[in-house]
Amino acid sequence: MMDVLRARADTKACHDMIHFNNAGASLMPIPVSNALHSYLFEEENQGGYETAAAKICELDNFYTASATLLNCTPKEIADVENATRAWDMAFYSLKFSPGDKILTTISEYVSNVVAYLHQAKRCGVELIFVPNDEYGQIDTKALENLIDDHVKLISINHIPTGGGLVNPAVEACR
């Protein structure tokens, strides 16, 4: 169980404000800020390659610590610069053929839609936006009716970037 009081105490700005953009870029806790400042100070005085070589054990521990947290092996962990890049790497590894379909939400993240449109143009994929229900969420009945043998990917965002929408992910997965 997460110790919320400790997390707040370790995050300076929590004392002065409530910050809701935790999925995009959360407030940095003091231990993280201190470690980054220390690392950058060393880079400033020793050089980037030299600092990376000196800190190789600490840097590689990211994979071990993350694997422990996620109950997997370090080889199953990928460290990339942001979620869009991670999604692109996974998405572009899929092999599409003419006539394949991608079903997605109207509220889909724009960077994902750009990749879908790219594959539609490049591979002849049909991109279909599933309509919303009366609450602005993905209409799971419409989704069900759109599924056929040509659907290669169903991509929904559970909680889109802005607006407070929460899509019914469990129902959509059924």
Q: How are the SSEs placed, and which strands pair?
A:
Blueprint: H1 4-9, H2 22-25, H3 30-46, H4 48-54, H5 56-70, H6 83-91, E1 101-105, H7 110-123, E2 126-130, H8 140-146, E3 151-155, H9 169-173
Parallel strand pairs: 1-2, 1-3
**Number of extended strands:** 3
**How many structural domains?**
2
**Sheet with the most strands, sense and barrel status:** 3 strands, parallel
What is the architecture of the largest domain at the second tier of CATH? 3-Layer(aba) Sandwich
The residue-averaged pLDDT reads 92
Structural class: mainly alpha
Backbone shape: globular
| CATH homology superfamily name of the largest domain | Type I PLP-dependent aspartate aminotransferase-like (Major domain)
The Rg value, from CA coordinates, equals 21 Å
Number of helices: 9
Look up the CATH topology of the largest domain: Aspartate Aminotransferase, domain 2
Order of helices and strands: HHHHHHEHEHEH
* pLDDT < 50 runs, ≥5 residues: none
Strand content: 5-15%
Q: How far apart, in Å, are the first and last alpha carbons?
A: 29 Å
Helix amount, in percent? 40-55%
Strand order of the largest sheet: 2-1-3
Q: Indicate the CATH class of the largest domain.
A: Alpha Beta
